[in-house]
Design the sequence.
């Protein structure tokens, strides 16, 4: 037997997530492997806002918190996954996991990493990178010299969206919640940046792009979305990626329906989930790795040390504690 | 000189349009034509909900009401438009109009009509037909055996949307505001029909399509839209065509933001205007005329006699007075 540490959700979130919502348990994991099985030990865990998504039915009290980890194979009766191999595993907030045939579908190939840090496979060379890549290029379809808006721009997905838009020859407007984040975004090449906590949003959007936006990559949702829609150009494209501003709300936000602006400007709003592009991840990860090697895209991680700190790293996402991708390392 | 009758908007609409908002004036139109000019006399006028669209900036008090008419050339110094020719002219609610070079861009070619009634060029073989054709096929992109929802289904665009969806092998759910309209929709081949005034909308949608809708062609807007979004399937596509339910509102409707359902199901909502497909109208009109000749699509018009009745025909649109396309004939 191997002892696995497991973070479970003690009770459903009410309002903001708090430390007392989680409980660290120990679980016995068999190391008496059957043919095809292997045992993994986590090196890095991803923490992401979507893990909060109670409304998707993903979470049930007394369940292990969901999520992706980067793990090393420590015992194996599966020739495709020999001991020492590293895999991406969607098995939740756990230290050790027995991968049976049933769970094999949660095991993903690693991208070609070269000399890059392994943990990038959970971020820019993984889920958040592919979210930025396919969300911007496939849903927004930005064209050269168009103007792109991205909110939550210093977050795990936003900072990549802005850099890809620059590669594509766009003018990029981003916003974040601290002056330090804004300064960093300017260093990354964002054309216009503002701290949304210090401005009137509508005025700031107007000042940043007097003629409006062709594309809007939305990580925030709620009132931000409704306001930004008023600043779109005709035939504008909006990619709905997340709505972190509302995850902790007890009631759905209310306000003016957005349909007026949509009709008068023939806007498209499309919500997406990066999983719908799963079959093309290898293609996207290859391009992203090249951009990193060529210096066209910079990456950044906010790393928290220690599995015991999973809840605080997760709670920090909603306070804007992270810049770039939030990772917990063993 | 020729005397033209002209319906002008006396003052901006407040709430529902009423007869006293309009005034019938007479205007002198020169028949002393310069080279390239021609004079037209209207045979049929289109009345459409979009004419209400104050928010688009289309309407200004003391302006002629906007809109399309079918007209005969009665004098001409333009060899492309000889006397006796019939044209579609976007010149507003007027009986006689001098077409100068400046106004030529408002003059459209007629579709191939064969033996069909001329007035169809303002409806199924014109703007509302092309709205249905391109809105459904290009924006919703329905696939065989998918389920399509259309509201305002007995209106000028809705009844065509439903019939095209049937041709494409879809299950079609429609709703309208009278039992007579619902009965007619069943005759047209709609699979499920309900009178939205007599049901709980959410329950009726659930009953009509327990597994949800793949496509939703929205003519109504407002709360209907927000409710219907909850009944979409994953990857559902919504074409926002109009929002007649809200045109007379003084304030934009408020309610739950629709973004929750969009994100959890990766929905696409795209607002469109048929003018964006202008370059392809001839293609769409040809297909539509063939479907009519083959008996695959039936057409229907609600014809009001007399130019003096333009306001009442227009006001009737918002009371559900018309079934099919509303036309005023000289």
Sequence:
């Amino acid at each position: 037997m191997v002892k696995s540490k497991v973070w479970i959700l003690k009770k459903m979130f009410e309002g903001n997530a708090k430390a007392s919502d989680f409980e660290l348990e120990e679980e016995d994991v068999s190391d008496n492997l059957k043919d095809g099985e292997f045992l993994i030990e986590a090196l890095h865990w991803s923490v992401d806002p979507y893990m909060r998504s109670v409304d998707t039915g993903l979470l049930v009290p007394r369940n292990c918190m969901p999520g992706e980890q980067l793990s090393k194979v420590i015992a194996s009766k599966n020739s495709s996954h020999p001991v020492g191999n590293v895999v991406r595993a969607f098995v939740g907030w756990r230290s050790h996991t027995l991968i049976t045939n049933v769970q094999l579908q949660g095991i993903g190939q690693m991208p070609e990493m070269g000399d890059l840090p392994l943990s990038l496979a959970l971020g820019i060379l993984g889920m958040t990178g592919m979210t930025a890549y396919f969300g911007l290029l496939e849903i927004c379809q930005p064209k050269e010299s168009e103007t792109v808006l991205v909110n939550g721009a210093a977050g795990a997905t936003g900072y990549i969206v802005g850099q890809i838009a620059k590669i594509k020859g766009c003018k990029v407007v981003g916003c974040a919640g601290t002056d330090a984040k804004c300064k960093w975004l300017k260093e990354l090449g964002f054309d216009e940046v503002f701290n949304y906590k210090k401005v009137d949003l509508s005025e700031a959007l107007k000042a940043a792009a007097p003629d409006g936006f062709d594309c809007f990559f939305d990580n925030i949702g709620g009132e931000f979305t409704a306001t930004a829609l008023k600043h779109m150009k005709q035939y504008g494209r909006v990619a709905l990626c997340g709505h972190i501003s509302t995850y902790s709300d007890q009631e759905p936000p209310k306000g003016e329906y957005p349909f007026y602006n949509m009709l008068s400007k023939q806007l498209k709003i499309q919500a997406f989930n990066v999983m719908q592009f799963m079959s093309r991840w290898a293609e996207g990860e290859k391009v992203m790795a090249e951009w990193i090697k060529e210096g066209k895209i910079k990456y950044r991680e906010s790393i928290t040390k220690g599995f015991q700190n999973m809840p605080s790293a997760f709670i920090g996402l909603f306070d804007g504690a992270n810049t770039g991708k939030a990772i917990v390392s063993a």
In short: The CA atoms of residues 170 and 237 of chain A lie 14 Å apart. Chain A touches chain B at residues 55-56, 221-222, 225-226, 235, 240, 242-243, 246, 252-260, 262-273, 276 (CB under 8 Å).
